[in-house]
Design brief:
The protein is mostly helical. The chain has 8 helices and no strands. It folds into 2 domains: 85 residues, Alpha Horseshoe (Serine Threonine Protein Phosphatase 5, Tetratricopeptide repeat), CATH 1.25.40; 66 residues. The longest helix has 31 residues.
Amino acid sequence: MKDIFALQDEVTLAVVSAIQPRIFQAEIALASRRRPEDLTAYDLCLRAMQQIGPSTREGLAEGLRLVQRALELDPGFAGAAALAGACHLENVVRNYAIDPQFERKEAVRLMRLALNLDDGDPNKLARAALTSALLVGDCETEIEMADRAVKLNPNSYHTWLCRGWVHKIAGRRKRSGALNVPCE
């Protein structure tokens, strides 16, 4: 019985020794990512997320207003750009858009801005891949981005969900030969 507990301790030590350096590297990478320069911008994004969550027309409008204000305060805040792009995408997908063409262009522009500011964040990368799959139609690039997002964080439900949708949309396009096959 003592040998079992000793073996368990050895296995635990081996596992911790194997993953500790990777966790440390991930923490360094996370810490080196660009943080918002303006804490008010960060606060506005947090408030926007609350508004956006239920995906109502009014909530998305208020969330977009808040996140646009955050971008005015800190134009280099990748998280704000990604969130603004997601709001525009939601307006298109949910048929809330007054000017769908403008909303589509803004969603793509803001997702590209977010990736230009920080292309190492798996959530932003996954969201950008899905936005592009829904609105642009560059299957190879979208699949590469979605696969890279999962590789960066294989434990993220969000990255796997976006990857699944990207692959499904790309498969429809390849079968139909069309670039702008709508989602069903």
